Amino acid sequence: MSGVGKGVTAASIANILQSRGFKVTSIKIDPYVNVDAGTMNPTEHGEVFVLNDGMECDQDMGNYERFLNKDIPGANYMTTGSIYQSIINKERSLEYNGRCVSVVPDVPLEIIEKINTAVKKNKAEIVIIEIGGTVGEYQNILFLEAVRMLKIRNHNDTLLVLVSYLPHIGADSEPKTKPTQHASRTLNSAGLQPDIIVARSTEEIDAKRKEKIAFNCGMKEEDIVSAPNAESIYEIPLNFEKNDMGEVICEKLKIKSRKKDFKEWKDFVDKIKKAKETVKIGIIGKYFSTGDFVLADSYISVIEAIKHSAYYHGKKPVIEWLNAEKYEGKDAEDDLKKLNEYDGIIVPGGFGDRGVEGKIAAIKYCRENRLPLLGICYGMQLMVVEFARHLAGLKGAHTTEVNPKTPYNVIDILPEQKEKIIKNDYGGSMRLGAYEAKVKKGTVAYSAYGQEKISERHRHRYEVNPDFIKQLEEKGIVFSGQSPSAKLMEIVELPESVHSFFVGAQFHPEFKSRPLDPHPLFLKLIEAAINKTAKQ
After folding, report:
1. In terms of domains, do 247 and 378 share one?
2. Would you tell me how many other CB atoms lie within 10 Å of the CB of residue 298?
C-alpha cells in the first residue's frame, strides 16, 4: 500500500550494499503517464525533487541521494509516460525498421534498456530498482513484466523484494499475515516469486509470524525481514542488518562483501538518539492539508534538511506546520505574535497566490522581531517583496506571478519563460537543475559556505527584477549571492548587524542536504535558532 515504506526500504538496501564496498545506484519507476513529476500536485503526489541535471522526479530520489550520500542522474528516473514517449519517438524515426511495435514485448524491453543505460551511466555494480504503486494495480503490469523478463535472463543476478504491511487489529493482537500472503500470491499471478519479504509493522515481528509467512509464501524463514517502526528513517539500515539482510542479499546474489563499514552512519544515528534539547522550527506554507489530514510529504526535503542540521548541532528538531492563510487580514496580529514561540522560521517554495499575503506578513514580523528566517525560492522572492513595500517605499510592490499589474514588479518572470507561458509549455520548462553562483565575502551567506563559488539546484520561473536592484540595495538589502554574470540574484539577506539571520535563497538548498553532509544555510539557520533560545 502507499506510504508503507518502499522508498526508504530501497534506499536502506542501497546503503547496506554500499557500506559493504559495492558501487551502488538506485532507480525509481513511477507508474504515472506523466512524463516526469514536474506537473504533479504536491498535495496529491508529494514533493517534486530536482536532480542536478534538472530532472523533476519523485521524492524517493531524494531519499536515495541522502542514503547514498551522492548525486544521482536523471537517467535513474522513469515513468510510464517517459517510456511511451521514448518508444513513440523511436517509432517515428524508424528505429524499429518499420516493424509492428507491440505493447508486449516492446514496452518491457524499453524499460530494461533504460535500466541498463542508468547502470552504465552510474558505472554501478548493483542497481536497486523501486517500482512505485502496489502489487495488482493495472498500471504496474508492464513494469512487473519487465522484472519477469529480467529474472528469466539474469536469474542469479536479479533479486525481488516485496514490502508488505502486517496490520494489528486491537492493541494486544498479533500482527496479521494474511494480507502479506495475498500480496505474495498476487505477485505470483504476474509470474514473480519474491526472494525476500520485508514485513512492515508497528513492532518487531516474532519467529512465529516469520514462520507463517515463509510457509504460506514458499520461502525460508531467514528471507522474511522484520521492519518495525523506527524513531528515525536513518535507523532502518541498521535495523535491517540486525536481521542479517545484507548477508541474505549477498548470499542470494552469490557475491562476497568487500568490507562492512557503517561507522559514519552509526555515528549519525547515535547523534539522533543522544539529542535531547530541542530546537523549534515553524514552516509557513500552503501544501499541508489533504482533506482532514496533514501531508508532510509536500516539503519532505526541507524537513530532512532541518533534521540533518539540528542533529549536527546536537539538538532534537521540533517541526510544526503553519498555515500561511492565518496570518492574513486585520485579525492576524495574535497569530503573528505566536511566531515568537519558534526558534526559527522557514518560508519554503510554492506557486500561486494562496496564502501569499500571510507569508509576507509573517516575513515582516520575523524581520522586525529579529526572528531567524530562511526563505526558499518563492519564500526568498516574497522577502524581497516585503522589503520593497515596507523599507524601500515601493507601495504595492509584488511579484507578477500574483499581480501582473503591480506598479513595482520587483519579482518578474524570466524573459525566456514568457514565450513558454504563452504556449502553455509548462512541463520541464522552468529554470531547472544545478547552476553556479558567486557568494560575496563578508556576508552571512559567505560565513555559511566559507567559499565564493557554489552550485545549487533551481526550480522556478520568476527572478528578482534587475531594474530595482540598485534601489533596494540603497535601502539596506544585500544580494550576497549572484549568478556568475551578476544578472540573477541568488541569495538575499540583511547584514548580521541588523538581523541575526534573515536569508533568502532563490534555489532549493534542501535538495543538496545529506545526513552526513548538512547544507550550510540550514546549519546557519539552526545555529541562529539555538542562539535565539540561549539569549532568552
Report:
1. no
2. 27
Q: Which of 377, 458, 490, 519 is an active site residue?
A: 377
**376-407 pLDDT per residue, tens:** 999 999 999 999 999 999 999 999 999 999 99
Catalytic residue among 308, 398, 458, 508: 508
Query: Do 279 and 234 share a domain, yes or no?
Result: no
Residues 340 and 465 in one domain: yes
What is the distance, to the nearest Å, from the Cα of residue 461 to the centroid of all Cα atoms in its chain? 20
Total domains, the chain: 2
Answer yes or no: 377 catalytic: yes
Active site includes 57? Answer: no
CB 468 within 8 A of CB 408: yes
* pLDDT tens sequence across 55-85: 999 999 999 999 999 999 999 999 999 999 9
d(CA 3, CA 385): 38
Distant-in-sequence, close-in-space partners of 531: CB < 8 Å, separation ≥ 6 = 500
Distances (CA, A) of 143 to 86, 113, 126, 129, 137: 15, 12, 19, 11, 11
Q: Is residue 164 part of a domain?
A: yes
Contact 35/79 with Cβ under 8 angstroms?
A: yes
Check if the beta carbon of residue 516 is closer than 8 Å to that of residue 266: no
Residue 506 per-residue DSSP state: S
Tell whether 279 and 262 lie within a shared domain. Answer: no
The whole-model pTM stands at: 0.94
Residue 38, domain member (yes or no): yes
Catalytic residue among 145, 357, 510, 527: 510
Whether 131 and 255 map to the same domain: the answer is yes
**For residue 396, what is the domain's CATH number?**
3.40.50.880
510 is catalytic: yes
